[in-house]
Write a structure and sequence with these properties.
The chain is mainly alpha-helical. It is built from ten helices and no strands.
């Protein structure tokens, strides 16, 4: 049987710290988690944490950059799953988003959650949050354009807000509430936009 410490020794400290921060921030919130808890979960110490990240704020920004990178892979997968078919990619986006909305372990969109927790414009993570959300919207607009939607910005905004709202509804009311209508509502919006 391999001990946890042996596994931790094989993973570089920076990666362990980011993995621990990712899990703790998402489960408990950014403000609720201190650097001591992160260091302990990463099987390291605060000195090592600060050697890799100048501050907790910088760690938060890097955590969000990692999430942003994951979101980029979703767009690439949609394109590879439905090559040359932007309408299928749009419906695929709905399905991918629905999986995250309905996941019982989900606490919503981690980047939106961070936006609520970090209102300060000068926080290093704030630019990451804003850039990620803007890029997500732009990618959705571009996909709507490629799908020949008459008003691509309008549909993208509707879908974007629908997703954000579904995450919040799922958190506040549960899967049986309005969030369970996410795919159906999204399909109706897409179909209404392509008539």
């Amino acid at each position: 049987m391999i001990q946890t410490t042996q596994i931790a020794e094989k993973i570089p400290p920076r990666e362990r710290i980011l993995a621990a921060a990712t899990e703790l921030f998402y489960q408990h919130g950014i403000r609720a988690v201190g650097v001591e808890a992160i260091a302990e979960a990463a099987e390291t110490n605060k000195m090592t944490l600060y050697r890799h990240f100048a501050s907790k704020d910088e760690l938060v920004a890097e955590y969000l950059r990692g999430l942003w990178s994951e979101k980029g892979r979703v767009w690439e997968k949609l394109e590879s799953d439905h090559p040359g078919d932007p309408r299928a990619q749009l419906f695929g986006w709905l399905q991918v988003a629905a999986v995250h909305v309905s996941d019982p372990k989900s606490r919503g969109c981690a980047i939106a959650n961070a936006a609520v927790e970090i209102p300060e414009k000068d926080h290093p993570a704030r630019k990451v949050i804003e850039d990620c959300k803007k890029e997500s919207r732009e990618k959705l607009v571009a996909l709507c354009r490629r799908a020949k939607i008459a008003e691509p910005e309008l549909l993208a905004d509707q879908l974007f807000m629908l997703l954000e709202g579904a995450f919040v509804c799922r958190q506040s009311i549960g899967n049986a509430g309005p969030a369970c209508q996410f795919v159906r509502a999204g399909q109706a919006l897409i179909n209404a936009s392509t008539r």
